[in-house]
Structures are given as C-alpha cells and as structure tokens.
Write a structure and sequence with these properties.
Elements (H helix, E strand, L loop, with lengths): L11 E7 L4 E3 L6 E5 L5 E5 L6 E5 L5 E7 L4 E9 L4
Parallel strand pairs: 1-7
Antiparallel strand pairs: 2-5, 3-6, 4-5, 6-7
C-alpha cells in the first residue's frame, strides 16, 4: 500500500513496513543519500537513479532509522513491521 507522510527537517515519523516483502521509501523531490540503522535490523538497496531505497526488515522489533537527503534534510523514522504487502 502506498502512503504519503509529510515531514519536516529534524522530525521523527512512525512508519509501518511489511515484515515479509520489500518496501520502497522515497522522499519526494529529493534523494536519500544516507540511511543509518542498527546492525541486523534490515537490508537496504539504494536506487541511484531516483534516490529511493528498497528495504527488507530482518527483525520484528521496532527500531529507529536515521535518514539524510541530498538537499540536506535529516529526519528519523521509528520503523515497525507487520505482515502484509510492501
């Protein structure tokens, strides 16, 4: 399911992602340049063309993902997993 979440610089948002499928994260009109997260919590692959990332969760426990973008935005995401489509 597609979701749009407005965000401000240095904000924290909550995001529920699929526990069993790949999820795509996009920052509209920007490119994700860095994603920092605890080891062993997820796998990530960056799409260099559009600046999005594909993630696969590796833990059912909530964790924090820190994101930086090409335009200088910084925000954190509290990631929760659930069974379902990505």
């Amino acid at each position: 399911a597609e979701s749009h979440i407005p965000l401000r610089d240095n904000s924290d948002i909550s995001l529920t992602l699929s526990q069993s499928n790949y999820n795509r994260i996009v920052v509209k009109n920007d490119k994700i340049t860095e994603a920092v997260f605890p080891p062993q919590t997820m796998a990530i692959k960056r799409d260099e063309q559009d600046g999005s990332v594909y993630v696969m969760l590796a833990t059912p426990n909530p964790f924090t993902l820190f994101v930086s973008t090409e335009s200088g935005r910084h925000f954190s995401v509290t990631v929760n997993g659930e069974e379902g489509l990505g």
